[in-house]
Amino acid sequence: MVNPPFLCVGSIFIDDIVYPDGRTDMEILGGGGVHAAAGMCVWSERPGLVASIGTGVPQAAADRIYREFDTQGVLPLDFPQMRAWQIFEWDGKRTELFRVKDIDPFMRAPLPSDLPASYRPAQAVHILRDASDFELWRAAFPQATIFWEPEQMFMEPQNSAAFRAALPQAHIVSPNVLEASLIYGFDDPQRLLDAMLADGVKIVALRMGELGSWVASAQERVHIPIVPVPEVVDVTGAGNAYCGGFLVGWQRTHDLTTAGCYGAVAASFALETVGVLNLPAPDERDRRYASMG
After folding, report:
1. 37-76 per-position pLDDT tens digit
2. What is the DSSP string of 112-167?
3. Ramachandran assignment for 220, one of left (phi > 0), alpha (psi -120 to 50 degrees), beta (any other)
4. Is the residue at 1 inside a domain?
5. pLDDT tens sequence across 124-151
6. pTM (two decimals)
7. Total number of domains in the chain
8. Is 274 within the bounds of a domain?
9. In terms of residue numbers, what domain contains 203?
10. Which of 17, 153, 154 is nearest to 83 (CA)?
């Protein structure tokens, strides 16, 4: 059995997208775990995908999942596949409406006990879960580098104490600036970096959309710009792809700037694609990385 060095613990979605002008894109493969895994694939990895998959998945989406990722950790469920309307407004606001009755099996499964033995030696694990599930998954990989991307729905003021209490168990945490501001009650990026480091995480990658990202440890703080693209087609999943790219960069080099640039390059390809990014030619990936100086 293959032992993939990188894992993504997250979810598989099927998105039906409605744009402000009324256009639609239907049956689009998505889900934070899939987007993050694709960000790793940009850097020539084939990560293990840890997620559940239901019935009725469109054939094109299923083909892509099994072609591009290691799927020993994908758990089949006898429930209709998680699917949602993604409705975008002109101001960028997105409303998510689930199209199936029961999403809990897809948000919580699989569990660490469902992991194949080949996944236990993983070197680095991206976990897209709330605080309680993050702690459960973190305990399953005591030797790995742990990257926590907290679930968007979890990042609310009432969960501030739980988020902060879980931070010391992560090597890297990456909320976006809005999510972090809801937890801490202020939106200044530098103060947010200070707060998360003070709460015990070793590295913060604070994502700020078109303003790039700030990456920080106790010793260093670097601003990472975005990689410009000719046309932004879809912002969905760009943050997840950034996280996947960042983790590969950090695990390979242990350099904050390199990791941030890996993340920004991965995100740039996500911005050009409806749904999960199209894997680029290595020459174009390397050109974008070199353009960051």
Report:
1. 999 999 999 999 999 999 999 999 999 999 999 999 999 9
2. GGG--GGGTT-SEEEE-S-HHHHHHHHHT-TTSEEEE---GGG-SGGGHHHHHHHG
3. beta
4. no
5. 999 999 999 999 999 999 999 999 999 9
6. 0.95
7. 1
8. yes
9. 6-291
10. 17
